[in-house]
Design brief:
By secondary structure, the chain is an alpha+beta fold. Helices cover about 45% and strands about 10% of the residues. The chain has one domain.
């Protein structure tokens, strides 16, 4: 039996998720308008996501 303990940050998780759904999201955006995307997380992680997610114009919510 083997175990792996990998630390995944909010930033890594969000970017990995967008990689996974990127094609579907692109297709969805051709069918209608995106009215809102919200990103919630610690300020330090949100700052890392602002540039890669800028094209989606998300609403940012900092949590402690």
């Amino acid at each position: 039996m083997s175990f792996s303990a990998a630390k995944v940050t909010l930033t890594q998780g969000v970017l990995a998720h967008l990689d996974n759904v990127g094609e579907l999201l692109a297709e969805l955006l051709t069918m209608g308008d995106l009215t809102r995307i919200e990103v919630h997380g610690p300020v330090t992680e949100l700052e890392k996501l602002k540039k890669p997610l800028a094209h989606l114009h998300p609403a940012w919510f900092a949590i402690a």
